[in-house]
Amino acid sequence: MKVSEKYRHIGYSYPGVPNGWKPIVEKAIIEIEKEMWPRWIPLSLKRKIHYWATGNSAIRIENTFWHYLRSKLTRNQIITDIKDKYATLRIYGFYGESIGKIVKEAEKSCDETCESCGGKEDVRLSDYGWVHNYCKNCRERKGPERVRKPKPKKKTKKKNTEK
Ligand SMILES: [Zn+2]
Predict the structure, then answer these.
(1) How far is the CA of 109 from the centre of ligand 1 (A)?
(2) Which of 51, 81, 114, 161 has the fewest CB atoms within 10 Å distance of its CB?
(3) Does the residue 162 lie in any domain?
(4) What does DSSP assign to residue 19?
């Protein structure tokens, strides 16, 4: 079973991020689930409660009773989106300190990891017309980065002296 299916009761569980980051995000999803839900409830039942409560949506209330129960069990915690933005990882939702810590660590880990190959060597934001977080090898493979020229200063009006 895919991580995205197995842990969908966290709210949003698709690691829709570049391949190099998928292992980091999947690990974070598993850790988030452990903090969000009581461990004594079987995963299959937690998935059902989430489904009855929200219809597997991170924002909808499908059934008031089950939603109330879900809120009680998770202490009102839910993940609403996982994505990469400007070559950094973002995990959005409503969560407390312990999940916040997992999120921060995953974001930091992605900063240090090549989004394409998962490599760690000299990883930094790289400009190919679109920003990517690439390692040294991937930058060499992609060729020269785009050089952005600094914006030209406003020209002072030249006086026409030639007439
Ligand atoms: Zn790479």
Answers:
(1) 14
(2) 161
(3) no
(4) G
Distance (angstroms) between ligand 1 centre and the Cα of 116 equals 5
* Whether 95 contacts 1, CB under 8 Å: no
Residues 30 and 92 both lie in one domain: yes
> What is the rounded CA–CA span in Å between residue 76 and residue 95?
7
Domain count within the chain = 2
Do 123 and 96 lie in one domain? The reply is: no
The amino acid at 96: G
* pTM (2 d.p.): 0.87
Is 138 found in the same domain as 67? no
Q: How far is the CA of 33 from the centre of ligand 1 (A)?
A: 29
Give Cα separations from 37 to 1, 29, 78 (angstroms): 19, 12, 10
